[in-house]
Design brief:
Elements (H helix, E strand, L loop, with lengths): L33 H134 L5 H14 L1
């Protein structure tokens, strides 16, 4: 082995050996070893090819097949679930529409019954008011007749008193009432 000799410009402690001591260059480029290198390359490639084709590729193919099968099953399940969800949504929308229609029918029936009830009450109230009005008018006519009868007597008494005071003698009651009746028919 060669003794390390320091060279100028190199750091201390580095060993420099000339290329002639290495044995002739980079081994893969030596022409004497090409045949052995090609043989080992073929053996390594063949072994690697055998391992890949018998071990790795079947495992990868199995994984891909399993993944594809799982995806297909998941897609089928999703399709079934979508179909079920669509039918459930359709049933929900139909039942909602039926419930809305039923609610509208109930509301209309309630409005109709309340309107009929209000109309019945209105007619009963109108009939009651008409009866009370007729009764009141009858009472007014009776009271008017009574009052008019009283007015007739009061007027006759007043006319008799006035005539008696003016002429000094009392007029005939029948004549005073007849005069009053004539004045009432004129108006």
């Amino acid at each position: 082995m060669a003794q390390p000799t320091p060279h100028a410009g190199l750091q201390e402690g580095l060993i420099h050996e000339p290329a002639s001591e290495h044995g002739g260059g980079f081994p893969p480029f030596q022409s004497t070893t090409f045949a052995a290198q090609i043989l080992w390359l073929a053996i390594a490639f063949g072994l690697l090819y055998y391992l890949m084709s018998r071990v790795a590729v079947p495992r990868i193919a199995g994984l891909l097949h399993d993944r594809q099968a799982r995806l297909a099953a998941d897609l089928d399940e999703a399709s079934r679930m979508k179909t079920g969800a669509d039918s459930a949504r359709g049933a929900y929308e139909r039942s909602l529409k039926e419930a809305q229609d039923k609610a509208k029918g109930i509301a209309q029936a309630t409005r109709d019954s309340l309107a009929a009830e209000a109309e019945t009450r209105r007619k009963a109230l109108e009939a009651d008011l008409a009866a009370k009005l007729a009764e009141s008018e009858a009472q007014i006519r009776a009271r008017t007749a009574t009052a008019m009868g009283s007015v007739r007597e009061v007027a006759a008494d007043a006319a008799t008193a006035i005539v008696e005071r003016l002429i000094g003698q009392s007029p005939d009651r029948a004549a005073v009432e007849a005069a009053y009746d004539r004045t009432q028919t004129v108006h």
